[in-house]
Amino acid sequence: MGLVIIQTKKYKAMTYKFYVRMDDEAFGPYTVKELMGLGLLDDTLLTEESMNGEWLPAKRFDFEDMFRKEEEMERAFNNPLPTNTLESMQPTAFPQNNNNQAIPNNIGKWNWGAFGFSWLWGVFNGVYWPLLLVLVNLIPYVGWIASLAGCVYLGLKGNEQSWNKKRWSSVAEFESSQRKWSVALIWVVGIALVIGVLVGVMIGIANL
Fold this sequence. Notes:
This protein starts with a strand and ends with a helix. Helix content is 48%, strand content 12%. The protein folds into two domains: 4-87, no CATH class; 112-206, no CATH class. 23% of the residues are buried. The protein is built from eight helices and five strands. A five-stranded mixed beta sheet has the order 3-2-1-4-5.
């Protein structure tokens, strides 16, 4: 299953209406009660129209509190609602990393560090399943193919998985860390190429 994205709007009865998008296809609307029954993953991303396009993981939201507010709004639907009551419909989010932060700009971009360093990158970024690739790589004939597929998946989804699995103090720290991994890969590849050229030259000289 791919990344699940949820977007909310407010309708007549001032209940939250959620739309679930899976594999670029939207489903809904759902009330908070219906949404709670879907069993969302903690890393499911949500946004609400008053959040100005900021996306937060599902674990940041207090759905029970939102459901209680929905019930209050349903009971008061036929009565005028004071302004302070409408303002209370603001979605309740749990703090994460002691910093109410937005989603990084590179969340959906290719991660060279994750692709190149695989399990080593995973250990330092809170993503531990790539350790299995060490064992998979030992399988004769097909192991390296499966391992390469895992590396490609890390390149595609590494940013998303690291952001959701590891606690980062800020978006800037996360993006800086991923840049350093990419630079480290460039250095490793560059050094390997230089060593390869030098060894080739030395072998050529020895054969003269």
